[in-house]
Amino acid sequence: MASTAVPKHTELNGEMSSCVFPCKKSKMGNNTVTVVLGAQWGDEGKGKLVDLLAVNSDIVCRCQGGNNAGHTVVVDGKEFDFHLLPSGIINKKCKSVIGNGVVIHLPGLFEELKKNELKGMQDWQDRLIISDRAHLVLDLHQQVDGLQEAEKGKNSLGTTKKGIGPTYSSKASRNGIRIGDLLGDFNLFEEKFRTIAESYKRMFPSLEVDVDAELARYKEYADKIRPLVRDTVSYLHHEIRSGKKVLVEGANAAMLDIDFGTYPYVTSSNCSIGGVCTGLGLPPNVIGEVLGVVKAYTTRVGDGPFPTELIDETGKLLQERGHEVGVTTKRVRRCGWLDLIVVRYTAMVNGYTALCLTKMDILDTLSEIKIGVAYKLNGKIIDYFPSSMTELSNVEVEYVTVPGWACNTENVRDMENLPSQAIDYVKIIEKFLGIPVKFIGVGPGRDSIINTV
Prior knowledge:
Blueprint: E1 33-38, H1 46-54, E2 59-62, E3 71-75, E4 78-82, E5 95-98, E6 103-104, H2 106-118, E7 128-131, E8 135-136, H3 139-152, H4 164-173, H5 179-183, H6 186-203, H7 211-225, E9 229-230, H8 232-241, E10 246-249, H9 273-280, E11 287-295, E12 298-300, H10 313-321, E13 334-336, E14 338-339, H11 340-350, E15 354-358, E16 368-377, E17 380-382, H12 389-393, E18 396-403, H13 420-433, E19 437-441, E20 449-451
Helix pairs in contact: 3-4
């Protein structure tokens, strides 16, 4: 029988508390902010957990990213897809905030609202609040995104071409346009729009922009968006002081973070814990629980190194059983074994207090399962996650092999009713990381989550 023990050299030194970086209690809100973050390369199923936790929350927030993110929520058999909207917007008792760190493509936002409204999402106008400091993703940003990718040729990054990178570049270059600019003096908005359009035309002569038509369109958007916009920083601080519970939904995931991810195969925002503070204007001392969402295996979309990738029948099985196709791009996701070196690294950065293990039911048919527990480089185990993509491309993964449970877990709702092999799988993850698994996902629906507490 295959060993289930984690090799000694792969364990963390010393005992770890369930909270990696314990927070002091805050006078403002008493740590009433809960954060949900992706712990791998995205697509871990954060939306379903956010939807579940939103039932007991007053406000759900997005703090960064744009409509390059995709979250699927299944409620009463209906599937809702969110890209800019916080997943908690389905909950009629919750306010939904799109924070200053998010970049917003207004045509995409209104299209998303319309599609979900047709599926049964009602009265969103009473629940959606948008920051006046959020930057606008213009159609020309999306065109530039595609042109930049084309220029890179074989070295392209596999972006979603949603204009996210160029918009954050505009923001950093201080020629970006914010929601507040659109709602202010329209003559100044027009001046800024023409300036940025001319700037991009100089860089990309083939870029075609009908400036007058775009300006006319944005005049209409200004009237539509105005009732939803406010200063979300003051709003959130007021609500936290009054005791409201706030839930923050991170878009993308830690391995796509522009600082800590597999650069340059990353997104253009900080989708780790720091992005929560800068993307909403919240201080660290209001944050209580930080939940890292981990898929029971590993996937990633686009290019870049992927140490545990399976380019075989098992990888194909995971892709097919897990319906691993991007919500936003419809690209097939690359699949591989669970990589605990990745999760340990993102836990260092984010300080997870607990984990949510999703899609465990996808492993139901496997007779044995592998878990990545160490990286070797030039024959030697390394104790760090490589920043160099050359190094990461050349690591050799050391695995532990565990027996599969080979039975259906989709209808299990209590930890004790899981097969013993599935429980062992969870325990190996907890032991290696020193972090408890609080939730286990065994299906797509809202009710298919096991609360282990």
